[in-house]
Target: Fructokinase
Amino acid sequence: MDQPVAIFGEALVDDFSTQRVVGGAPFNLARHLAGFGLPVTMVTRIGADDNGALVRNEFTRFGLSDTGLQTGAGEATGSVHVEVGSDGSHRFTIVPDQAYDHIDGTAALAAVQAARPGIFCFGTLAQRDPVSRAALHGLLEQTEAVRFLDLNLRPGHVDEAIVFDSLQQADIVKVNEEELQQLFKWYCHTCPDTVNMECISVDTECRAMMHNFSLSALLVTMGARGALYLSADGAHLADHGTGSSACFVDSVGAGDAFNAVFLLGRLRGWTMERTLARANAFAAASCGHAGAVPQELSSYARWLEQWAGEPEGT
Model:
């Protein structure tokens, strides 16, 4: 039986003016894991408004327990305003002072303690307000679960002090290349070029940082070039066979898709080689549909069937 997973952070709505799409990296992760059949407790806060109703509908659609879902009277459900340029580029405005900034620590602790998770996931955006940051600290102080940090830096909303504290609290950290470069600037003697992620200088600086923050593992996603996994016991594994979607739509939530399969593999005892290959394939396929999660939930069963049918050693 799979160990439960607890996830703390923002559930929000991306407002494109012509449509509203439920998102938020932690909530994307929660929905993916629930789609794969894992028991998930999502700790977040919404308002009693139309956007909150959209989030609740997604809890229902994915069969997620609402034990960690809080509703704040008079508070606004998290929102991101998205402007699409004539060239297809996107400009994001993350709205301040939203419901997920006011997560109640007592209620959150009760939900997580009832779940007794084996893995506890968190990020940085929901720490921008002292109220939710204090709630997260209370959970981290009490849990014995493995702590998985998806750094997910959002300029203007997260400062270095929050990043430093988060790294100190984490066991496993996932970053993209740009975030890794920022960590190098803050915490390492040199800032090596990450064009070749497998070069000695990158490995050396990563391991120095892992040692300083007592991390058991560091994951670096590299877009179409795959992902790299480093562990405190000396492992250095890369997978570049990401595959590609039949028709690229957007890369929204690709990192969240990768995280979901990485955690699934950890919970189900897959080899790291197999885990990275499957996480990369699922992330690449997620770029073939609009938004972070698929509309057809039956797609999760198809992935599980495909993986179950793979011969040993692949």
Notes: The mean pLDDT is 92. The CA atoms of residues 263 and 290 lie 23 Å apart.
